[in-house]
Amino acid sequence: MSLEKQIMGKLKEAMRSKDQASLRTLRAIKAELLKEKTSEGFSGEISEEVELKILTKMAKQRRDSIDTFKEQSRDDLAQTEEEELNVIKQFLPEQLSEDAVKDKVASIIETVGANGPADIGKVMGVAMKELQGKADGKLISSVARELLSS
Question: Nearest Cα to 139, choosing from 104, 88, 114, 110?
């Protein structure tokens, strides 16, 4: 089932149960999907890759907002963002552990033939494509830098 159909089903459930956090988040996801559909050069269905990219971007925005609100001691706003992040996570693939990311990045370094920190660009390009949606970009970057500098 496509993401759009899943969202519509969950949206109906959220309306029935009067779950405001889910409703707000699902409407935001629906709006992003609609924006993508109406963008210039779009044809047909939204691919799974694009759906994943949209959800990953939305999750990252929520994480950044949570950090900012916690720094500013705005726990009420941080809690709202956390609620939204939890709803978005339902549609994202399961996140890899740090050890799994290290293993993947190590194999990518070997495959690309990277030798040191100067080759971080090569590694990150491949790693971000392979691990998109499965791991946070900051984690991938820090693991890659750590492995390349050792």
Answer: 104
Integer angstrom CA distances of residue 3 from 7, 35, 42, 48, 51: 6, 14, 17, 8, 7
- Tell if the pTM clears 0.85, that is, is over it: no
Same domain for 140 and 82, yes or no, is no
Residues 100-128: pLDDT tens digits?
888 988 888 888 887 888 888 888 888 88
Shared-domain flag, residues 85 and 105 = no
> In the listed set 63, 89, 115, which residue is the last one of a domain according to the structure?
89
Tell me, what CATH number does 142's domain have? 1.10.10.410
pLDDT in tens, 86-100: 999 999 888 888 888
pLDDT at 1 over 80: no
